[in-house]
Design a protein that fits this description.
The chain has 17 helices and 20 strands. The chain is globular, with a radius of gyration of 24 Å. Helix content is about 35%, strand content about 25%. It starts with a strand and ends with a helix. The structure holds ligand MV4.
């Protein structure tokens, strides 16, 4: 069935991203928005719009009833959930289907299995898929927990079955910590997820976080689009992602890709999904979990494969047969993404809300910016503080890195502090450049003092103005024809000289 009208149940950059592909396919787009987003670019972009409630997500973007009512009101024939919000809510997928609307994603059943980490392990156990040594079932008894840990060896991790994405994990270093950590883990899992089931795994201490993009249709065809390396994270929030990974060779890439396809097969997966692995120092890999949605970092895969993942998602939801064959998917060059958050990297990444007094994204060869804001807009406090994703593509990794450095220096954001200076630090770091980094990159190499002496944009503007005033007073008039910008360069020169 051909989709004619698509409602996007999301906001900001990802709502825009999805509507852009839909429009290229001749599909009418509908934005739903909260009061905080009334003037956002994604609302202006849409062909039709529906306000679904107040600013808190619990009163708008998380309301299954309001989203479905909006879709019925405008007679949308499909809903794309984006990422976050309702995207991995199996009840939402069920409710959409029950309302006679197409859900752009996998079956509710696949979402349910992969959302429960123990159910996911059970599902994949019918294939030869490497799992981290650990328990197959929930552990309640502390004595049993200690027995298991003694066998697999410390350190171990206690994970909540209903968790995922790093939520509800606890490292246990030795047997004497076990009782206390088990108690905490179970009670946390109960209050956070309403499900106190926890399991135990050997803790892989310094892994790389590697994930494989898959696409499956509703006719049993499934392909993978290679891997992304998302090892640079802060408190389980990804900061830098790239494709392909700098450390996989052709053989490992083939094996991890084929394993990802088996994971997808184990739950009858269709639409776009991501299979997460950790890779240890010996380059052994283990399946961790599957994310049953389009991910934030999908653009790096699009850049290296040339595949528009959102268009494929829509075609799959229309029950079309996947036209892409595994042999057609080849890696072209290298792509890196940095997430630009309204956070202050000099102050423990504290969210910095405010107004984008100036906002000028970079342009030029090999650059893609997926953003959701424009100059003059306030960053709402109700949501994630991501302003944009900056993505570069190059013929090889080194060109992608150099482009990223150039793009960051061109990006002009004032009014709020951003993570751009941190990103500049990270992509210039020796261990990033060599590819020898793991999930501990930030704690191992970053401290706020790394950014000392890097003047932020606001300060630069103010000091340029001061310099300009000073300069114009002391120089002959015809010499200051280029005004502020030449004064600004002088100021930079002075900084270099001092
Ligand atoms: C692990 C692990 C090491 N050993 N499991 C984090 C997100 C979720 N998908 C599972 N995650 C991990 N599971 C075992 N047995 C390491 C991670 C992990 C991580 C841990 C600490 C700090 C940052 C991390 C980043 C990615 C993955």
């Amino acid at each position: 069935m051909k989709i004619k009208k698509l409602l996007v149940a999301n906001r900001s950059e990802i709502a825009l991203r999805i509507m852009r592909s839909a429009r290229e396919m001749g599909i009418v787009t509908v934005a739903v928005f909260s009061e905080a987003d009334r003037n956002a670019p994604f609302v202006r972009f849409a062909d039709e719009t529906v306000c679904i409630g107040a600013s808190p997500p619990s009163e708008s973007y998380l309301r299954i009833d309001k989203v479905i009512d909006a879709a019925l009101l405008v007679k949308a024939d499909a809903i794309h959930p984006g990422y976050g919000f309702l995207s991995e809510n199996a009840d939402f997928a069920d409710a959409v289907k029950k309302a006679g609307i197409i859900f752009i994603g996998p079956s509710a059943e696949s979402i349910r299995i992969m959302g429960d980490k123990l159910a996911a392990k059970k599902a994949v156990s019918k294939y030869d898929i490497p799992l981290v040594p650990g328990t197959e079932k929930a552990v309640i008894d502390k004595e049993e927990a200690r027995k298991v840990a003694d066998i697999i060896g410390y350190p171990v991790l206690i994970k909540a079955s209903a968790g995922g994405g790093g939520k509800g994990m606890r490292v246990v270093q030795s047997a004497d910590e076990m009782n206390e950590q088990m108690e905490r883990a179970i009670s946390e899992a109960n209050s956070a997820f309403g499900d106190g089931s926890v399991f135990i795994e050997k803790y892989i201490t310094s892994p790389k976080h590697i994930e494989v993009q898959v696409l499956g249709d509703q006719h049993g065809n499934c392909i993978h689009l290679f891997e992304r390396d998302c090892s640079i994270q802060r408190r389980h929030q990804k900061v830098i992602e790239e494709a392909p990974s700098a450390v996989l060779d052709e053989d490992l890439r083939k094996r991890i890709g084929e394993t990802a396809l088996l994971v997808a097969k184990s739950c009858g997966y269709y639409n776009a999904g991501t299979v997460e692995f950790i890779v240890d120092e010996k380059l052994d890999f283990y399946f961790l979990e599957m994310n049953t949605r389009l991910q934030v970092e999908h653009p790096v895969t699009e850049m290296i494969t040339g595949v528009d993942l959102v268009k494929e998602q829509i075609k799959i939801a229309q029950e079309q047969v996947l036209q892409l064959k595994q042999e057609d998917i080849v890696i072209n060059g290298h792509s890196i993404e940095i997430r630009v958050y309204a956070e202050d990297p000099s102050n423990n990444f504290l969210p910095d809300v405010g107004r984008l007094n100036s906002y000028k994204p970079p342009l030029g060869p090999g650059i893609r910016v997926d953003d959701g804001f424009e100059e003059g807009m306030e960053i709402p406090i109700n949501y994630d503080s991501m302003i944009a994703k900056l993505i570069t593509h190059g013929r090889d990794r080194s060109e992608a890195i150099e482009r990223m450095k150039r793009a960051i220096s061109e990006y002009k954001i004032t009014g709020v502090k951003t993570t751009l200076p941190f990103a500049a630090f990270a992509v210039s770091h020796k261990e990033f450049v060599t590819g020898r980094f793991n999930t501990h990159f930030i704690e191992d190499y970053f401290s706020p003092s790394e950014l000392d002496g890097k003047i932020d944009q606001d300060e630069l503007v103010v000091s340029s103005l001061i310099a300009a005033l000073h300069y114009d007073k002391t120089m002959p008039p015809n010499n200051s024809s280029s005004g502020l910008s030449s004064s600004k360069n002088k100021w930079k020169q002075r900084l270099r000289d001092s």
